[in-house]
Amino acid sequence: MEKSSKLFIAGHNGLAGSALVRKLREKGFDNLLLKPRSELDLTNQHAVEVFFAGETNEVTIPATWAGFFNPTASDQPRVA
Questions:
Q1: pLDDT at residue number 29
Q2: Nearest to 13 by CA among 65, 56, 68
Q3: Please, what's the largest Cα pairwise distance for the chain?
Q4: Which uninterrupted H or E stretch holds 77?
Q5: Per-residue model confidence as pLDDT tens for the chain (80 residues)
Q6: Which pTM was predicted?
Q7: What per-residue string of b and e applies to 48-78 under the rule 16 or more CB within 10 Å gives b?
C-alpha cells in the first residue's frame, strides 16, 4: 500500500479509529477518507452502497462496531 493510497477509515472518531488515524498520519498517509456518522450512517446499507458507488478508495479499514453489529437485531447480543 502506497502512502498516497486512498483509505476509508470507518469509525475514525472512536477510540481505535482515532488512534489509527493519528498513527497513519504520523507514517505519512495523507489521503484519508473520513466521514462522520452525520454524513454516512454505516447501519444504513443503502447509504453505504451509494457512498461506495461514488468513491474510489483503495482500502477500507473497519475501526467501528457499526459495520459488524446491528444493535436492533433480536438475534445478536447487545453491548452494554
A1: 94
A2: 65
A3: 42
A4: none
A5: 889 999 999 889 888 889 999 999 999 999 999 999 899 988 899 998 999 899 888 888 888 765 455 555 555 444 44
A6: 0.71
A7: beebeeeeebeeebebbbbeeeeeeeeeeee
Whole-number Å distance between alpha carbons of 71 and 61: 21
**Is residue 72 within a helix (H) or strand (E), and if so which, with residue range?**
none
Residue type, 50: V
Phi, psi of 56 (to 5 degrees): -120, 40
Using CA atoms, how far apart are residues 78 and 70, in angstroms rounded to an integer? Answer: 9
Grid cell 473497519 — which residue? Answer: 62
**DSSP string for 35-68:** --TTT--TT-HHHHHHHHHT---SEEEE-SSTTT
pLDDT at 31: 93
